[in-house]
Fold these 4 entries.
Entry 1:
Amino acid sequence: MKAVERRQHEQLLGVWKRMLHALLDIGPTSDSQEDLEAYGSVKDYILDRIDERESILSAAARKCRGKRAFLGPHLNGLPPGENAVDNTTSRGVENA
């Protein structure tokens, strides 16, 4: 999962959690059975969305666990002379 996608999922998770807190603060509008059922179904829907986002994020974290960064100078696939750490021109520019 790309960082942009992960941030979007994290933002959506935050939105669903804020909605849940707002719903819990408000509570059902009355004690009628119909209102209690509607409140419960909305709460269940929000909890399902939260679980969905958390499972997506945890699956992505498990998938990426143990992988190395792939843009380090020794992993970018360039010959040693082309890497910034080995290239004297690049080194001179960085130190200037």
Entry 2:
Amino acid sequence: MTTSGDAQPPASEPTAPATAEVPVDVPIEAEIVDPTPTGADVSGYTDAGVPTFDHVRESIERRTATALGFQELSHGSAAGDNAERAFAEREKAAKAKLDEIRKSLGSTPPPSG
């Protein structure tokens, strides 16, 4: 028992693709492109999971640039000056505490110089 919803249209017969003859003596105009980049070029890691030299160099350069930029920005601001002052105070307090601990243990402080 078939209903009208089950009826399928007749399948058309596939046709062969048309082939065109290309003259052999006509040069083909095409743009030369760079080869597809490898996984190492894209991710910075080889297939074995080892970072490439370019990836390592770029990471170091990026970190250096970030550190230099942060240093330049922090020296010119009040917040940077406050941070430097607080760091110096902590260093001074840490040195005093270390001297106190050394004195309590009976050891002599290292020579300053």
Entry 3:
Amino acid sequence: YVPSFTSSILLSLSSASPNTSPAKMWQSKPVLVLLLLAATTAATSGKPLLTKITKGAASTALYTAPLSAGRPLVLDLSAPAITTPCSGQTTTVTLSANSTDGSNPLSPVSFAATATCAAAPSGAVGVAGLARSSASFPAQVASTQKVANSFALCLPSDGRTGFSGNGVGAAIFGGGPFFLAPPADRPSITTLLSDGVPLRQPFAGNPGYFVTATNGIAIDGTRVAVSGSGALVVGLSTTIPYAQLRSDVYRPFITAFDRAMGSSAKVAAVKPFELCYDSSKLAPTRFGYLVPNVWT
């Protein structure tokens, strides 16, 4: 599920004609959004697995997790299987992560998984496919660890670490509970995830997942006025650095976001972006920069 857009993935939004089919929505007009992303099926039993997520260089901007003996696998929402360079069609690989209680990593866990033979993306040793498939990484974790076929991603917005950056995220495979980090009183966010917008499979020809915002979009509690008809679809991907919106939604959205942001941090736009802000003038939080919340 995708709850309201509330955590630490830095995406951009692009537009498409209101009458354009979802399979033709890939015209880039980006802005910045913060997002917590999760997808889930029915829970079983056992302990979920936890791993950190890092974001690669600007040339690739791929999200990776150290799942192969500490070596990175690219996390791909659209890929149906685990892949790695090998000969033949499939091979068996040993993958590893930490078990978790939703608050802390507990102990290292290694397990065998079936991988499809394919070339690895630059800077990685393979791909952890997250699409709905019996060969996907979440499905194989569920089968070997006796946990739910589910995952939650908190994606980092940049490749930097420390106070000035937001360079490390987290992935949990196998269900909740999920807790916020200190210094808060560590409330569970499992309920927030369960009340989210359904995360669906990609349209034909387009990578990633999508959500249908049946209740519209609101920025800091103020609904964005949209005049077009048809499903309000938001396309998501971990391998393409843009989310997608219809053009009749994109324009009022960035207008409302710009109004909510104010002008104190605004700087001259750099293509392909229409709105740009000086991050040094934005207050950091544990969810990323303090910017208007976007809700569906």
Entry 4:
Amino acid sequence: MFLSEVEDFRTLYVDPGEDTGWCLSSGNILISAGTTKLWPFADDVWAELESPGGIAGLNDPSLFRDTCGLDAADELSKPINRVVCEDFRIYPWVARNGDLDWDQVRTARLIGALTFMARLKGIDFFVQGAKIKERAEAGGAQELFYNPLKENRHQNDAIMHYTYFTQIGPDDGSVASRVTYAEAV
């Protein structure tokens, strides 16, 4: 396992979309998760990066997992120093079919905004493919899911990205791309 202990910062995992699923971890400990509309989510991320530890948005204490065994105040005050986001691709057959004609590709815009925020703040940003389900489930993702499953599917998808990343880490070939602070300067 790549991440095997608590870290002194938090990682934000993102399943981007109109209803954006997200979760936060401290190393290998999942500390919170939620689903937020696309642009309000971007605003919450920016607010957190500008002033870590606020009590709204990503740091809503009611979203903290009591079962994680960590202190909510301590964990929610840690800065976010890593973002792992599901990639967005326009597949050729979808483009040829015209299914995305005139689409505003808002999901791609959100990913671009998150990438820019990470670069601006010196935070590593990783993009993972969408096909991670098998490995994430083998790693125990379903044990961490929120119920009811349908209503929580987006944050549960973010938990799949968390489970996958904690197993493989940033240097595995399946992590699609990496925008590090070193590349930004």
